[in-house]
């Protein structure tokens, strides 16, 4: 479960930003998860709540946006969205000549704080 490590690193960034803005508390966090990041949203939520205990972000609301699995198909020359990250065939032409466009990471998009 790499979600715990991702949450620990995210919390470091969140606390750093909160302190720079003299926050008393972080109330909400928006995170975008890449389609090919292998992050399980339920595990991410559980781990996030766990690592936030005793910090400025304890009890904050976590919003997770899951990015779609978008690829560029060389065969039909168009962007396509895969129904599953595990199926690597174009839904238009069935080609396997796809280039991943979707992100494979995790980004903190926005924080809401109380000053």
TrEMBL record:
GO terms for biological process: protein maturation. InterPro entries: Hydgase_Ni_incorp_HypA/HybF_CS, HypA/HybF. Gene3D superfamilies: 3.30.2320.80. Zn(2+) binds at residues 73, 76, 90, 93. Belongs to the HypA/HybF family. Involved in the maturation of [NiFe] hydrogenases. Required for nickel insertion into the metal center of the hydrogenase. It comes from Kluyvera intermedia (Enterobacter intermedius). One of its GO terms (molecular function) is nickel cation binding. The keyword Oxidoreductase does not apply. Keywords: Metal-binding, Nickel, Zinc. PANTHER family: HYDROGENASE MATURATION FACTOR HYPA (PTHR34535:SF3). It holds the Pfam family HypA. This is Hydrogenase maturation factor HypA. Ni(2+) binds at residue 2.
């Amino acid at each position: 479960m790499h979600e715990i490590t991702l949450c620990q690193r995210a919390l470091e960034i969140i606390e750093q930003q909160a302190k720079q803005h003299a926050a008393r508390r972080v109330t909400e966090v928006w995170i975008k998860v890449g389609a090919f990041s292998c992050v399980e949203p339920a595990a991410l939520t559980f781990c996030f709540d766990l690592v936030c205990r005793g910090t400025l972000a304890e009890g904050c609301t976590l919003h997770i946006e899951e990015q779609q699995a978008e690829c560029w198909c060389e065969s039909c020359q168009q962007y396509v969205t895969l129904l599953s990250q595990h199926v690597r065939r174009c839904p238009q032409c069935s080609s396997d000549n796809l280039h991943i466009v979707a992100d494979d990471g995790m980004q903190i998009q926005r924080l809401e704080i109380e000053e």
